[in-house]
């Protein structure tokens, strides 16, 4: 991120192009992730999995709230966008712990996901998540155009995972 753009974001200035439609688009992958975690919880019976899924979802909800505030109130609350960097990784780590604690449930779910047609969807999901990693390293969080691209890829990825889990 350029120094000037980063300074503006930290000062709480509202970046251009953050609309209500972008905030709504950002909510789609969060809802799909929460749905996928709920479906997976049918196989992975672990409180750590559930807590991790709640935390990871909360991180996404915080980012959506940030975009809604930008769009509707023209107010930038940088803490809402930054919290995701901390809350989501803790949530994902707890999900890994939970999956490990219920190894039998996890292995059963993975076995189901490893069969067609779920496997093709899981591969598509992995491709989308690799793109998201690339976006995270190279794109400007305060650029609305970059956000549209990220949320499009994220929504497709989360949808493919959700459908894969439903078919598993």
Order of helical and strand elements: HHHHHHHH
Instruction: Please estimate the helix content.
Output: over 70%
Low-confidence stretches: 1-10
Integer-rounded radius of gyration:
17 Å
Backbone shape = globular
Sheet/helix structural class: mainly alpha
Span from first to last CA?
A: 40 Å
Annotation, overall tally of beta strands: 0
Structural write-up:
Helix 2 runs antiparallel to helix 3 and helix 7 runs antiparallel to helix 8. 81% of the residues lie in helices and 0% in strands. With 168 residues, it is mostly helical.
Describe the structure in brief.
The chain is an all-alpha fold and 168 residues long. Helices cover 81% and strands 0% of the residues.
